[in-house]
Specification:
The complex is a heterodimer of chains A (551) and B (139).
Chain A (H helix, E strand, L loop, with lengths): L13 E7 L3 H12 L4 E5 L16 H4 L8 H4 L8 E5 L30 H5 L9 H15 L24 H14 L4 E2 L33 H11 L3 E4 L2 E7 L5 E7 L5 E11 L2 H11 L25 E7 L15 E3 L15 E6 L16 H4 L2 H10 L3 E8 L8 E9 L5 E7 L3 H21 L3 E5 L36 E3 L14 H17 L13
Parallel strand pairs in A: 1-2, 1-8, 2-5, 3-14, 8-16
Antiparallel strand pairs in A: 4-10, 6-7, 7-8, 9-12, 9-15, 10-11, 11-12, 13-14
Helix pairs in contact in A: 1-7, 1-12, 5-12, 6-11
Chain B lengths: L3 H14 L14 H12 L4 H11 L4 H11 L1 H17 L1 H7 L17 H10 L13
The chains are: A alpha/beta (551), B mainly alpha (139).
């Protein structure tokens, strides 16, 4: 489990920039700022997690992944986790608190938005457009591909032309080949999956070893989690990282400028870190929670919330899946997990289907014998136990794989993050509560896609299929709760992540998303963070700062 | 850890849930009650209370009746017992060998593009699957 790496903390009284959160976006910001000469302090509520802590290469993996390495913080209930009230949510949020954030446990699917994702209002007449287009973000995507060490194959006809990936694709394996055969029969798009997992040694990181345990941490230390890809360079450049630091408030001065943060350290002591600029990078739940916690006379409804949109428009990508079982061995415990192949065949809007927008599909392996068992209690005993205990495993182990479906979630103000009136975290700070319902458009979308994914399996020769139309533990992608836009009345931050209400406060994580797309968002989160922080660096001379942060 | 009586009760239930069949040994034949259950519990101590509750509910009932009762009225306890039982069973290396599962082991990647380039050519021939988008928003 997570361990503490002691470090000598020589914290400045006033940092040039304070970053809250050491995950995907915070890592990008800290590294870029430190390498540009800024004094940077990052407050992270979790700890370091070395590869040796992961269980993927140990016999107990399938047992501990259901608890200690579960992505749902309410199940994992680690010391660094905060609880989330999900009693009014269709979906459970998934995340990890620690250096590297949720990249520690993510699947490393490295997928960009498509051009239409930035123009949803213009092209489909719903939701909103982003303040910029695909071409604007493309160079940042390409740079993040190199920083993360992405393995993939270029010339995918699902995307505009651009720079190729820095590493060749990982093996698609027997499951990928089998899935591709089905797609080929149907004439549907597929492509080897792009993953932020190196297919060969890359920048001092080892090659993937195909443990297939990416979702519970990479025991090889190969997967691109930002503790590995960004933090060592950031610390070498002089950044200061405080682990075990739970921020409870962004402070402001009498002019309404951010002046730093109050946090609880590992010993339960409240501390203050002053800063000229504050960047919040706590994910689509942690960020609005912190802004809502940061009330004051100037900001009685929470910081940067004059629009009333902080916490609203939560999007979590409802996830459907169809598992196909085949009558031949496919070694379907082999990684990456990770995506073997992907499909964008039904990604774009076709209104004849009865819904708008679409979903990316991805083939993933199915793990070991426990991974194939669905539940233990409440169903007919004979289905799961007795002689069928053996028959089920023999029929499915190594012979099954999943077509997963990432359904685009449209923004809806009624889907939101609020502060829970009673639930608190380990430091007594109000926990977030999610109020989230999957929409009718999403239900129709998932129904359509599940039916097509079943057809894909059948075309590939599956002897049986089983489907999940809405997986409850699927909320990996926490988006939209401090959305960007040009109008302060309808957005929280501008296109550079700067809060409309507080010009030295920035939000750079998935909260910034205007729409969610139908793809895994980490590539976009990190590209967006890089774009925002480089603009902050370029415009440093014009940056307003708090007078109370002056040295 | 479990008392002798609790362990015997667990073994009786375990052998109904995982019997000798299909060329596979029962839970007891796989040393689950005597060895692997304890290993599983060291990794999942959070399930200990549920397991003990299940064994208390089971009491002296015949195993099949105990299982029905647990699966009907004590589902969390039954799930704790079931998770430990299945997890312990598959931690036994001999069981892994019998089902042909090597475990999650290091397997250096080898380029397999030659196994699918024929299919990929068809994808390329079908052409672009995304919509071009305008650089400027409509409003």
């Amino acid at each position: 489990m997570p361990v503490t790496i002691n470090q000598s903390l020589d914290l400045p009284d006033v940092a040039d920039v304070l970053v809250v959160g050491a995950g995907a976006s915070g890592s990008v910001a800290v590294k870029a700022l430190a390498e540009s000469g800024f004094s940077v302090v990052c407050l992270e509520q979790g700890d370091w997690t070395p590869p040796s802590a992961f269980a993927g290469d140990k016999p107990e993996w399938e047992l501990v992944k259901q608890k200690q390495w579960h992505p749902n913080p309410n199940v994992r209930a680690g010391a660094a986790d905060y609880p989330v009230d999900t009693s009014e949510s269709d979906v459970n949020p998934l995340m990890y608190s620690g250096v590297g954030g949720s990249t520690i446990l993510y699947a490393a699917h490295w997928t960009r938005f498509l051009p239409s994702d930035f123009r949803v209002r213009t092209m489909d007449g719903i939701a909103d457009d982003w303040p910029f287009d695909y071409a604007e973000l493309q160079p940042f995507y390409e740079r993040m591909d190199r920083e993360m060490g992405v393995s993939g194959l270029g010339d995918n006809p699902a995307y505009p032309e651009g720079e190729g990936y820095p590493l060749p694709p990982l093996p698609i394996g027997k499951i990928g080949r089998k899935a591709a055969e089905g797609m080929d029969k149907l004439g549907w798009h597929w492509w080897p999956g792009a993953n932020s997992i190196p297919s060969r040694e890359y920048r001092h990181r080892p090659s993937c070893l195909r443990y297939g345990t990416c979702l519970t941490g990479c025991p090889a230390g190969a997967k691109a989690s930002t503790d590995i890809t960004h933090w060592h360079a950031a610390l070498e450049a002089g950044a200061r990282l405080v682990t075990g630091a739970r921020v409870r408030e962004i402070t402001v001065d009498d002019r309404g400028l951010a002046s730093g943060a109050l946090y609880i350290d590992r010993n339960g002591t409240e501390r203050r870190q002053k800063a000229a600029v504050v960047i919040v990078a706590g994910n689509g739940i942690g960020t609005p929670r912190l802004l809502q916690l940061s009330t004051s006379n100037l900001f009685p409804d929470g910081l940067a919330n004059s629009s009333g949109l902080v916490g609203k428009n939560l999007m979590m990508h409802p996830y459907g899946a169809v598992v196909g079982t085949y009558d031949e061995p496919l070694d379907s415990w082999l990684g990456p997990a990770g995506q073997s192949i992907e499909s964008m065949q039904f990604y774009e809007t076709d209104t004849s289907r009865g819904f708008v927008r679409g979903a990316k599909w991805n083939v993933m392996p199915s793990g070991g014998p426990l991974g194939m068992r669905v539940g233990y209690g409440g169903g007919p005993i004979d289905e799961s136990w007795g002689v069928n205990f053996h028959r089920n495993v023999k029929a499915t182990l190594g012979r099954s794989f999943e077509w997963g479906i990432i359904a685009e979630d449209l923004p809806d103000e009624s889907n939101r993050v609020v502060l829970d009136p009673t639930l608190v975290d380990g430091d007594g700070i109000a926990a977030p509560k999610l109020i989230y319902k999957s929409s009718e458009n999403t239900s129709k979308l998932i129904d359509f896609h599940v039916d097509r994914a079943r057809e894909a399996h059948e075309a590939a020769g599956a002897v049986s299929t089983s489907e999940t139309r809405l997986m409850r533990d699927c909320g990996w992608h926490l988006l939209g709760t401090a959305r960007m836009g040009n109008d302060p009345a309808t957005s929280v931050i501008d296109q550079w992540g700067r809060a409309h209400d507080v010009p030295n406060l920035f939000v750079i994580d998935g909260s910034a998303f205007v729409t969610s797309s139908g793809v895994n968002p980490t590539a976009t989160i990190m590209a967006l963070a890089l774009r925002s922080v480089e603009h902050l660096i370029a415009t440093r001379r014009d940056q307003l700062v708090s007078s109370s942060s002056a040295r | 850890m479990l008392s002798d009586a609790e362990r015997q009760r667990f073994a009786a239930i375990a052998d109904v849930l995982i019997p000798e069949a299909e060329g596979m040994p029962s839970a007891s034949q796989a040393d689950v009650p005597t060895t692997w259950l304890d290993v599983a519990l060291t990794h999942r101590p959070d399930l200990t209370a549920g397991l003990l509750q299940a064994l208390t509910v089971a009491g002296d009932l015949p195993p099949a009746e105990a299982i029905d009762l647990l699966n009907t009225d004590h589902i969390p306890a039954f799930e704790a017992l079931g998770t430990l039982l299945a997890g312990a069973y598959y931690m036994n290396p001999e069981i892994k060998r019998l089902i042909g599962y090597p475990g999650q082991v290091a397997t250096p990647p080898k380029d397999d593009t030659d196994t699918y380039f024929d299919l990929l050519e068809n994808v390329l021939e079908r052409g672009q699957v995304y919509r071009d988008a305008p650089a400027e928003a409509s409003s």
